[in-house]
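Handout, tutorial session.
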Amino acid sequence: MKTYLSFLIMFLLIAMAACVQDEITEELLSEDDLLKSHEIEEGKYSGILARAAEWYISLPEGWEDMDTRYMIFYAHGLQDPGEGPNLPSDTVSNRSIEDIITGMGLGYATTSYRDDGFIADEAVEDIRALHKKVCKVLKKMPPDISILGGPSEGGLVTALTLERYPKSFDGALSICGPIGDFFGQLQYNGNFHVLFNYFFGEDLATLGYSTGSPLGVGEEIMDQWRSGELPSAVQQLLYTDALQGSVKLLQLLNCAQVPADMTNPVAMGTAALQCLRYNIMITDDLIDRLDGIVPFNNMETDYSGSLNDEALNNNILRVNENSYLTAMMSIKKYETTGDIQIPFVTIHTTGDNVTPFWHDEIYRTKILSNGNGLLHTSLPVENYGHCTIEESDIVNGLGIVITKIQKMP
């Protein structure tokens, strides 16, 4: 044990020394050499932050000659545990976010974060480190205006960052993020999980599979999901349900209050699969990050919307691992305040099945309670699905942010 501890301490000291050495080396480089040392091709730069998060910068043509340089800092969405951390390669309308941003004549900067999974709290610090790195690397031609934005988990990272560090950025844009009520989001997720198991759990077990529960999932089930094996089994169940006309899927979506096009069986199945994916891939990760606390409690939940609500409420799994108060306190670091000091645009699809539209409405109420309503603009997108927006929505949102920044005293 002593040998192991000695080795661990030595490893940590070496790692810390390496980070310090990298910073010292950068300080010794001239501005031109610093820029060149990170250049991977013309106008594109990359490197590693102190906590092993990757960073990347992409500049539009003519950046150095612009009168006002705008830099968009991109906070990416969730990367499933075991699949990252990686620099994002997100697309909208079949174009990469990077191309959309630089095509508007704006700079683009992003980071992988230090870890995959639900890393929103720590990612705030990675975004701050990215901002500092951009200012250091582009010291001769730094951005004049810095705007932070991102989708889904990145939308929450955006809101938390501008609330905690209001002077780091000049404006922000959040897309379909769980920014209104994070505790409510976890109840939404957990309710879908136990309801799915109530309606489809036994049928899935006959195929040799399980989805776990809000109490835990397990690596085997997660691997089955990653491989596509489990999603295929679930799709088979949903397809059989539709053919037989048993309407289990319709009851599931109704009881879980999941927005979906109820006239389209394919859209309904897609909505259910997307919700289930988050339960399977994030449940264990989040419990670990909350030091073992299960952030879901449905002991007093009265479910409705099925063909037999009495049977549903008598037989569904009830979770009471932790009290509501304990669960709420455990996730406090993910809750927003609505206390914003800079222009902030929120874009949210009204039929979002993963992070419901009510997040946008609740966050707006928080902002108004802080007396900063004029700084916020909500842009609802009439569509089903999670973050199903178009390039024009991003362009419109950024245009509003930039206009408001230009009007700031």
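The second record follows below. Compare its token runs with those of the first.
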Amino acid sequence: MAAETSQTLDRGLRVLRVLAESPEGLTITELSTRMDVNRTVVYRLISTLEGHALIRRDARGRLFVGLGVLHLASAVQPLLRELAVPVLRSLAEAIGCTAHLTVADGDEALALAVVEPTWTDFHVAYRVGSRHPLAAGAAGKAIGLLDQADAAAYAVTSGELQSGAHGLAAPVRGLEGLRASVGIVTLDGAIDESVLAPRVIAAAQSVAERLR
């Protein structure tokens, strides 16, 4: 027998999902139509979610996801970091390159976790919290692969974010709501894709498994 669920909570979560997928915002009528739910019911849901800053409306009355969602999302970041670091550490120590978990934050790539190898003479110092455009660098381009049906398994770049630096990253697949990649960056010559790509892809898969 199916577990008992809360219809009101389910509808409230659907409201947030629909608005998150509508960057241009929606009116209450448009939201009601998208959800196929009575306008009066939607109005009550909106009022409740607004009270928790999870929804905001602009001067035109259009509805958007509110800043309260950012506070909830920020609480998830330490968990992602904690679960990913052991995988990144194994990757960094095995190949002698700085390893990182990067997530999409709007149109930017955000370095959420970084592990540097302990045994190399030199390596790339990559700061947690670093940001760059999603369209630049291996980490951002790997996240972009999540939007392509027949995409490559990884992305590789050279000198796009730092002169002389080479990067390779693979998307973290199979996690709804999370757009992320696992990657490496090095200054030690061009990346040998045949050797390093399988390791990075495996690390990305391992992170996905730990987050499920």
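Points raised in discussion: The CA atoms of residues 46 and 175 lie 27 Å apart.
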